[in-house]
Amino acid sequence: MSRKVVRASKFRHVFGQGVKADQCYDDIRISQMTWDSNFCSVNPKFVAMIVDASGGGAFLVLPLNKTGRIDMSQPTVCGHTGPVLDIEFCPHNDNIIASGSEDCSVMIWEIPEGGLVTPLNDPVVKLEGHSKRVGILSWHPTAHNVLMSAGCDNVVILWNVACGEAMVRIDSVHPDLIYSACWNRDGSQILTSCKDKTIRVLDPRKGTVIAEKEKTHEGSRPVKAVFVSDGKILSTGFSRMSERQVALWDPKSFGEPLTLQELDTSSGVLLPFFDPDTGIVYLCGKGDSSIRYFEVTDEAPYVHYLSMYSSKESQKGMGYMPKRGLEVNKCEIARFYKLHERKCEPIVMTVPRKVNTLLKNDYNSKHEVHALQKEVKTLKETVEELTKRVSELESKN
C-alpha cells in the first residue's frame, strides 16, 4: 500500500484574509483603463491608486490609516494631461512617487507628511524622453534616484532623477511592445518581457543583452517575468490554446524550462509578486477574484502550489506592501491592496503560529492526563470493592 507523502514546508498553511469593511478604502472611482499594470502602490505611510479623471490623468494618495469612505472632494495628484498608466513609490523615500502616463512623460512627486490637503499639479521633476505612452516604472532597489521606465515606443530609459536626465537609453533591443521590466535584488540586471515572446536579461550599464529566451510561452497574450531566488526567472503567460501558464527558467542554460505548469483557461494576465525571504510567489490575475501562491525551491518540480485566496469580487489591480510595512508580530508575511470597482481592500497573508499547535497539544496532553487519573481512581475503587468482597467471603467460610 503506497502512502502519498506530503512535502514538508513551513508555508503549507499560509492563508489570506480580507480585512473588516471599516478598514477598507471606500467610494473610490478606480481607473477604467485597460492596461496590465498594478494600478496601485503602497508603502508603510501611504496607499496610492490610479483613479478616473476628466481631462487628464490622476491618482489618489491616502495615508494608510485614512480608511473608510473617501470624500469625493479628496485632493488628487493631477499633473498629467493623459491617463496615468503606472505608479510606484520610491523604496528609499516614502514621500516620493513616480507616475507614467499616456502623455509620454514620467513625473516625480513629493507627497507631504500626512497626505494631500490640496490637489498636486506640479511635479518635483518631469522626465521627457519617450515618444509614446509610458506604461512601466521601476525604481532601482539599491541606488538612490535611479528610475527605469519603459514605453510603448519599445524603449527602456534609466533616469537620474536628481538631475532629471536619461543616463542609459536602451532603444535597439526590443522590436515590439514591452510587457514587463524589473530589476534583480541588487539592481545589477534588468529583466524584460516583450510582445515578440522573448524574455531578456539586460546589463543596465551597457544596455546590452546578457541572455535571452525566445518563445517562453507560445500564446500571443502578454508575458510577465520576475527574478526569483538564485538568479532564476519566473514567467507567466499563455499556451497556444490560451491556457494560463507559469514557468521557471535558469538563464545560465536557457534551453528548456525547469518547470512549466498549466493553471486554467482564464483570460486575465497574471501579475507575479515574489517574496525573496520566504521563497513564495503570489500570482494575481487581472479580473480574477483569487490570488494563487506557490513556493519556489531547489527541488523538482521547483514551483510548488501552496494554496489560493478566493473572494467574490474581481480585482482591477493590486498593490504589494514592502516587508517593512508588515505586522510581523502577528505572523503577517505579505499584504496586498486589492482594487475593486469602487474600493481598495487590504488582504493579509498569515502563517499560523506553531505556538497554537503547542498550546493545543499541551491542552490535549493535560486532557489525557486528567482522563487517565480518573481511570486510575475508578480502577482503585473497583480493586478495593473486590478485595472487600473476597475478605467477606473468606470470613463466611
UniProtKB/TrEMBL annotation:
<feature type="coiled-coil region">
    <location>
        <begin position="369"/>
        <end position="396"/>
    </location>
</feature>
<dbReference type="GO" id="GO:0007015">
    <property type="term" value="P:actin filament organization"/>
</dbReference>
<dbReference type="InterPro" id="IPR036322">
    <property type="entry name" value="WD40_repeat_dom_sf"/>
</dbReference>
<keyword id="KW-0853">WD repeat</keyword>
<protein>
    <recommendedName>
        <fullName>Coronin</fullName>
    </recommendedName>
</protein>
<feature type="repeat" description="WD">
    <location>
        <begin position="77"/>
        <end position="119"/>
    </location>
</feature>
<dbReference type="InterPro" id="IPR015048">
    <property type="entry name" value="DUF1899"/>
</dbReference>
<dbReference type="InterPro" id="IPR001680">
    <property type="entry name" value="WD40_rpt"/>
</dbReference>
<dbReference type="Pfam" id="PF00400">
    <property type="entry name" value="WD40"/>
</dbReference>
<dbReference type="InterPro" id="IPR019775">
    <property type="entry name" value="WD40_repeat_CS"/>
</dbReference>
<keyword id="KW-0175">Coiled coil</keyword>
<feature type="domain" description="DUF1899">
    <location>
        <begin position="4"/>
        <end position="68"/>
    </location>
</feature>
<keyword id="KW-0677">Repeat</keyword>
<dbReference type="InterPro" id="IPR015505">
    <property type="entry name" value="Coronin"/>
</dbReference>
<dbReference type="InterPro" id="IPR015943">
    <property type="entry name" value="WD40/YVTN_repeat-like_dom_sf"/>
</dbReference>
<comment type="similarity">
    <text>Belongs to the WD repeat coronin family.</text>
</comment>
<dbReference type="GO" id="GO:0016477">
    <property type="term" value="P:cell migration"/>
</dbReference>
<dbReference type="GO" id="GO:0051015">
    <property type="term" value="F:actin filament binding"/>
</dbReference>
<feature type="repeat" description="WD">
    <location>
        <begin position="127"/>
        <end position="169"/>
    </location>
</feature>
<dbReference type="Pfam" id="PF08953">
    <property type="entry name" value="DUF1899"/>
</dbReference>
